[in-house]
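The freezer alarm interrupted the setup, so I double-checked each line after restarting. Inputs confirmed:
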Amino acid sequence: MKYLIATAILLLSSALNAQELLQFDNDSQRDLYRSLTAELRCPQCQNQNIADSNAIVAVDMRQKTYELVRQGQERQQVLDYMINRYGDFVHYQPPLNRYTLWLWVAPVLMLTLLLGTAIYRRSRQPQHNADTKSELNTELDQLIKRYRSKKP
Amino acid sequence: MRKLFFYVPLVLFLLLTVFLLSGLFSDPRERESASLNRALPEFALADLMQPQQIWTPQQLHGETFLLNVWGTWCPTCNAELGYLTELRKQGVKIVGLYYELPRDPTFDAPFNLKALQQDVAQKLQQNGDPYQFNILDLERSLSLDLGVSGAPETFLVDADGIVRAHHIGDINPQVWRAKLAPLYQQWSQP
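Predicted 3D structure, all chains:
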């Protein structure tokens, strides 16, 4: 019974004290804020997103993201706002342009090359194999024949 | 033909080596600012020392200058004050953009302009004063619009208010000679 009361108090107190630091109008705004701060990159401490970083610029960018989301701006509008100021660098999802095209093309190119060589080699090999095999077979047949003929 | 094929992996390997080696010595912080070749963003910010004076981009037109983002809290900024003062003596116009730290309403004392002015005056007396004047960016709004990632950072702005060069980090004789001086010469010609 003691434990039950203690647990109840613990659970209740945490529920009562739960208070959000940032207020949002609805859940979709909160989700948008979360996903945006996770995929925007901190220009100061590289390889951290702005949700993760406490650099001054990350604090400011979080604040700005919050303001823009509260104003009801769309995901792409907020991203454009940031990219307009900090460049493509600031978004973890690189845009498709003539510099980044290779990121997508190179693996496909390598795979096709690899497949191409594999098929090319395959197409040449079996013929060769069959030849040696039949040669070997006739040789073996002869051996067997000779062995049998020796037997009384 | 077959012999040539034999060298393909070697060539690929060498190309990859060159690519990776160049990456090893490149500076990941070096990247082009998005503000480059664009006009200064709109702003109306108070002067740090004479708060009744409000600066707008139009008031900065007419002369090529350096916009130096700094703060007394930033050791590198304090270190470059000496060399910037030398540049000012050589006739380079330098405007300070004071990058104030964000404050947490729960833990930090409210902003005190008098204390900041005293702090700045003291630092400039100690290390030299390179600035024609300082613009106070209390909320770092102009800094955000300029894409500033921290202090110190410096923008070269031409007479029409267009950002022509950008440098992250301190300005020392080497950086000035190699990177900024040629651009300054180029853009300050009438």
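Quick read of the result. The CA atoms of residues 4 and 10 of chain A lie 10 Å apart.
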